[in-house]
Amino acid sequence: MIDLEKDIQDMAIRGRKAARTLVGLSTKAKNKALLSMASGINEKRDFIQMENAKDLKAGEKKGLSSAMLDRLELSDKVIDSMMKGLSEVAALPDPVGEIEKMVKRPNGLMVGRMRIPLGVIGMIYESRPNVTVDAAALCLKAGNAIILRGGSEAIHSNRALASVLQEVLEGEGIAADAIQVIPVTDREAVNIMLRQEEYIDLIIPRGGEGLIRFVAETSRIPVLKHYKGVCHIYVDSDADLELATPVIVNSKAQRPGVCNALEGLLIHKDIAEHYLPQLAGEFKKHNIRMLGCERSVQIVSDITAARDEDWGTEFLNLSLCVKVVEDMEEAFSYIEEYGSQHTEIILSENYSNVQRFLKEVDASAVMVNASTRFNDGGELGLGVEIGISTTKLHAYGPMGLEELTTRKFIVYGQGQVRT
Amino acid sequence: MIDLEKDIQDMAIRGRKAARTLVGLSTKAKNKALLSMASGINEKRDFIQMENAKDLKAGEKKGLSSAMLDRLELSDKVIDSMMKGLSEVAALPDPVGEIEKMVKRPNGLMVGRMRIPLGVIGMIYESRPNVTVDAAALCLKAGNAIILRGGSEAIHSNRALASVLQEVLEGEGIAADAIQVIPVTDREAVNIMLRQEEYIDLIIPRGGEGLIRFVAETSRIPVLKHYKGVCHIYVDSDADLELATPVIVNSKAQRPGVCNALEGLLIHKDIAEHYLPQLAGEFKKHNIRMLGCERSVQIVSDITAARDEDWGTEFLNLSLCVKVVEDMEEAFSYIEEYGSQHTEIILSENYSNVQRFLKEVDASAVMVNASTRFNDGGELGLGVEIGISTTKLHAYGPMGLEELTTRKFIVYGQGQVRT
Question: Which terminal CB of chain B, N or C, has fewer other CB atoms within 10 Å?
Fold first, then answer.
């Protein structure tokens, strides 16, 4: 007889206890453990793939799409890339213990801020079992314990990976509860997890918008998330159009199914008549389909007239919306109405317009003369990312190691008292 | 006929619209407005005090304590100090637009993080009407709109202050909705406010533990708060006892009724027999009462034996708990069990113990050889504070202007595409 409520709470309590011991770990010890995790996964490759095969078989029976089965599979290539990911995390600088902004106060107190782990992170995700290893590695490096809740279709794979990682932790003298996988697939387990605000400090959900909305609306623990990416490019009247075209095409077509792909194009009226036909010719070569405003349809006849519901859609395919705008102000209003605070781009050579766009547009990444596809932890220099946040509190944009930590004040005194 | 739900939501929507216009304001314009707010309050002193008198009269009728009435009163001195606060906020550096960590990526992209306002802040507080002005000033300087919900006993004062501030904003050409006071005293207004997650970005509650727990449990918007301050000092075996005594006395007695006052003293067993009697003598002079563990009572007979429920109590008066501990490990466990992650101090001359304490103790401020009373925004160099957070996400410790902002990524490109 299983008492799910008690079991999940016990996991959260054990995670909290483990987190307490991780704070004192040296960078060397954490890196050694990460590299041992890579070897451990290599050694247990057969076991992991055997367990993965159970998930794949069950998935086939359930009629999962081949794309879904593909994401589920722990092929040699995927296992190799998990191992590479572990070495990469080991090579990143350790944020924990870094002291920022140490200043001397008039009374002689030395005041600084020390980076510390957040504590216990709960990760809720869908099919890819490699997230189990990637997320565990980042959390360990940042000194956090992690509780993972993957999709039910990957349960055997996730349990197998967790058992390998926990065995490695034990061998390294690190609390095995630093990495825990919820071993049951009941949806109720997620509900219980989201009530453990006393023991879990942060929830990161990754997956479809439905999952993320459910988590955000249910959780009593703070959640860092993004629902979707509806990214725009504004082509200014002063844009360098030779630069613009490859950037726009790359933003839409390089990988259309991801959150930082382009979904809407705003073109200044002064260049629309000249530029839209040119762009349409280029789009044809890449099978990019345009759904446009009335004015754009008048300029290029094979643009489909957009319906009201098309504006602000996250297409995740080779379609995009096109709108001719009066000025940058109209672009601002459009982005405010239809954007998802993810990625917004201006293409322009006009200094003042660029500065105003950077300052006033509200999105996790605002860029000039570059592809939307660069809003990614690796590309922006974070090393690796555990997700992207379009919530403003704590982290806005890709989240790396630093975003898995916080800062406390530290003070060196010499007997000061307050008067 | 009032539709409260619609009215509060309208305020939130207007706050969001005003916030959009604040992002583009120059530092100069914000500072000018802050100084005009000070003059405005000075000019409308009579009106403000007349409205305040209504609250005071109602408070007397309701039988409020003289301490409560004192906090409620907008005397000339309090009005002068609000004016001084406004000038101080005007003099602080503007965090908005600051760019941190600009780095060049291998592909030539310049990547940085720009500080931006959070958006709309909701402030929920109890009696002191001066909080209305202090909080509005900080939020305006950080480019945020604010919606204020003060205590019902201060409603006339808060409405009067808001009308003066809004008139000044209008005169300065700034959206008056940047500063709004909820004009009704229904408790239901708070419930409605806490559901406006679409328009309000952050809630800061200030007041008693009951109010704060209610807000934290009800809100769908992120909340930064601290419930209480149960602060400790650990006196190490290597402490400089001449330094220790004034620090301990200051921590407890300088202002016992506040959250950064000392509530628990942990003394290493090697010095307890020598030091406790000495300390007890000093405590007597300051009327400090000790509730102690068995060992402490054996050493000093006039220590009262602590009951189980005394440990971890926020006394807010001249009492404190005393416990003799085996070693620093026992101090760590005690702090973990009874602390409130507010302020924790080590008194020691031992280098390694100091470093370990700073690293491993989990509190918003961890200090060496200094009074607990220094955990305060002004004392730690933030200029002013809007509250203290013992929640780890986003801000841990006193919150100043920087904590009322977040950072977005900005990228300067030259036509880069992703391959």
Answer: N
